[in-house]
Design a protein that fits this description.
This protein is of the alpha+beta class. Helix content is 48%, strand content 15%.
Length: 172
């Protein structure tokens, strides 16, 4: 399914199945990578160059859709451009993006959180008030998992969504 179709379906019904379809469509974007470069947009936001930030973020879409960081940066950018309604929409997308991750598991090895990007892992940690002190890649039953231990000693597990596949042990 194309991204625009998957997005429309997900907006109408953000079920687990439609979220899985949207994730797959995002990964199918020609510019999808697991480590997108948000630095140019973040720097432009910090310096108040909102047009440059907007252009940088739009250049990453649709591959960064469902990225809490991307939507947060876009909300700040749109606010800086005086587009308050659009900024509110992006804030809602940032929250929804985080919810899709946290609803995908519980952060344990048995039910890791499903992410599309490495930055998503750090967005979840930030939402929990945690900071990474160590990140270790693990293999568990054929699944590739990032185990992140935080400064407070908690360990959380994340699994990168594999295009078109439901991940074993996850609610997708």
């Amino acid at each position: 399914m194309r991204f625009d179709e998957a997005l429309s379906t997900w907006l109408d019904d953000p079920s687990r199945e439609n979220t899985a379809t949207l994730r797959t469509a995002i990964q199918g974007a020609p510019n999808y990578v697991t480590s997108p470069d948000f630095e140019p947009a973040a720097t432009a936001v910090q310096t108040g160059d909102y047009r440059k930030a907007f252009d940088a973020l739009m250049g990453l879409m649709p591959a960064v859709f469902l990225s809490p960081l991307a939507h947060s940066l876009l909300a700040r950018t749109l606010l800086g451009l005086g587009q308050e309604d659009d900024a509110s929409r992006e804030k809602a997308f940032a929250r929804a993006s985080l919810v899709t991750i946290v609803d995908s598991g519980d952060g344990s090895l048995a039910r890791p959180w499903i992410v599309l990007r490495i930055t998503d892992e750090y967005d979840v940690l930030a939402s929990l008030g945690e900071k990474s002190s160590m990140q270790v890649p693990l293999e568990d039953g054929g699944r590739l998992i990032d185990a992140i231990t935080t400064r407070t000693g908690n360990t959380y597990h994340f699994e990168l969504w594999r295009r078109g596949e439901r991940v074993k042990g996850s609610a997708a």
